[in-house]
Design brief:
mainly alpha; three-stranded antiparallel β-sheet; 18 helices; 49% helix; globular; coiled coil; Integrase-like_cat_sf; Site-specific integrase
């Protein structure tokens, strides 16, 4: 487009700028400049009008229907791969809006916009997305179905990778420069690196001479493990993960029993509303490990500034949980760094998709898996909506991939019938007596072999056969009692088999499996060191 006429399309973006934030304006300007007019000029050099001939419009639409990327083939040569552009209609919608906006503005300011009014080259039929929405939902569901079965492989591999990197780094630290590192079968030696930073440990492969930064490898493996665990246990968004701070960990103490309930405060992100999440024992273990690592030898977590890629602003200094040392500075993790952590962790697993390519996990995949598994395990959809911070229940139901639609509809119908039959007084603010009754529920959770995690006002599905219940959290101090229960069950099973009471044998074996599971839980708990999180503190000297 000629220079004297180029100002008006720029004016279009300036006209829209007051009503858009930075991200939205960027989403409009990039397709108009890159996918629309740049391609038009490549197909028709010298064009200086928005009026596109039919042949040129068809060629442009065909061109943007596919996207090309360059990859390295098995022989080391560059190979160009073309694939369908899944959001092609979204780009067409933005270009159509460009044409229609100018036509609309021309009615109000003809002197400014009328010279640019031309027929839009994109019809309504070309941007219809009814089928595309169904296809996109099917793709997302299939993506979610493929990933839960391999999630344990990813978590186990990330944990082993973290432990192996930490052990290798510890062994290298105890090795003098130039000597072979123990337990590496002579494959690695401590590198002599006089110019390297003092806190970095380098190793050298004896076969190839390639140097490896063991400090970086251990850090990368740890943070990949931490990110995967926090994402899968909370279902939070990736920007919410990166905004977690030491102050996000809070607690609520029950006034009657003094029992402490840990909570995780999730900062506002997409919906501009914060929410509280109950911290499970597994999540508490991960958070305590992160905090212990960040504290190091000091008693405080360093304050770091982070950059908001959506708002294009720098956030104030905060004790972020996801931060790392780069040189002598403490820096916050970025979305790009988070994706890189996941890619490297997945590469270590060797998992592939049905097409044979490396399986890809995005941070949002963990959120979809979290919602799907929660609803499949009986969590009401409207409760999942609150936990995830969705404004609409339809959004939450759109995340589920395996839960039968009939069950969701039946649950919604049940809620409607219950609200129609129950008095409206039940949907009011609870009284002090009702609140005390709710708190009293937590006092009755204590049983002989642990604590019951049953929800308030819900019946006991095992009729108080606690050893069978998955909600029971066994007390390590009651291990002896559990062993007596297990031994008694073994004796009763032997007696029932001897007497031919086959019906009783089946029930006793179910109880035996529950008792052995509780003992295994106690064994796993005893292997974890207790970490005192303490209250968050900051010091002015920690600001970088």
């Amino acid at each position: 487009m000629s220079p004297d006429r180029a100002a008006d399309p720029v004016d279009y973006l300036r006209e829209r700028q007051p009503s858009l934030d930075y991200t939205s304006l960027d989403a409009v300007s990039r397709p108009l400049a890159g996918l629309f007019w740049t391609r038009i000029e490549a197909l028709a050099p010298g064009i200086d009008s928005l009026r596109l001939p039919s042949a040129l419009a068809r060629a442009w639409k065909t061109d943007i229907a596919t996207k090309k990327r360059t990859t390295i083939g098995p022989d080391g040569t560059a190979v160009e791969i073309a694939s369908p552009r899944l959001n092609a209609k979204d780009e067409l919608i933005r270009v159509r809006a460009f044409y229609l906006d100018i036509a609309h503005w021309a009615a109000e300011e003809p002197a400014r916009w009328a010279p640019w009014v031309v027929p839009c080259p994109i019809s309504d039929e070309e941007i219809s997305k009814a089928k595309d929405r169904k296809h996109r939902k099917a793709r997302m569901d299939q993506r979610t179905r493929e990933r839960p079965p391999v999630l344990p492989v990813l978590t186990d591999t990330a944990d082993r990778r973290r432990r192996a990197a930490a052990e290798l780094l510890a062994a290298a630290e105890q090795t003098r420069p130039g000597d072979l590192i123990p337990d590496t079968a002579g494959a690695l030696r401590r590198a002599v690196a006089p110019k390297a930073a003092g806190h970095l440990i380098w190793a050298e492969e004896t076969s190839t001479g390639r140097r490896r930064n063991l400090t970086y490898e251990e850090s990368e493996a740890f943070w990949a493990f931490a990110a995967i665990e926090v994402l899968r246990l909370t279902g939070i968004r990736n920007e919410e993960l990166l905004e977690l701070t030491h102050h996000s960990i809070t607690e609520y103490r029950l006034p009657s029993t003094g029992e402490v309930v840990p909570l995780l405060q999730v900062a506002p992100s997409k919906t501009d509303s914060e929410r509280l999440r109950l911290v499970s024992p597994e999540l508490a273990d991960i958070l305590s490990t992160i905090i212990r690592r960040l504290r190091g030898r000091s008693r405080a977590i360093a304050l770091v500034t982070s950059y908001d890629v959506h708002e294009r602003v720098w956030n104030p200094s905060m004790p972020l949980l996801f931060q790392r040392d780069i040189g002598t500075e403490h820096r916050a993790f970025t979305p790009t760094a988070l994706r890189k952590l996941l890619i490297n962790a997945l590469t270590a697993t060797g998992l592939t998709d049905p097409g044979g390519e490396l399986l890809v996990f995005s941070p949002h995949d963990f959120r979809r898996i979290f919602v799907t598994e929660a609803i499949m395990n009986g969590l009401p959809p409207h409760i999942a909506q609150v936990i995830c911070g969705h404004k609409s229940l339809d959004t939450t139901m759109g995340y589920k991939a395996i839960y039968p639609a009939e069950t969701i509809e039946a649950h919604r119908a049940f809620i409607a019938r219950r609200r129609a039959t129950r008095p409206s007084e039940e949907y009011r603010t609870p009284t002090e007596e009702e609140w005390d009754a709710f708190l009293a529920h937590f006092e009755k959770r204590k049983v002989s072999i642990g604590a019951c995690g049953r929800a308030f006002s819900s019946p006991c599905i095992h009729e108080h056969a606690c050893v069978r219940c998955s909600l029971l959290r066994p007390d390590p101090a009651q291990r002896g009692r559990l062993e007596e229960i297990r031994d008694n069950l073994l004796a009763r099973i032997a007696e029932a088999e001897r007497e031919g009471w086959l019906g009783e044998v089946e029930g006793l074996k179910v109880s035996l499996a529950g008792a052995e599971d509780k003992l295994a839980q106690i064994d796993r708990q005893s292997q974890k060191a207790t970490i005192i999180l303490g209250m968050p503190t900051t010091r002015s000297g920690d600001v970088e």
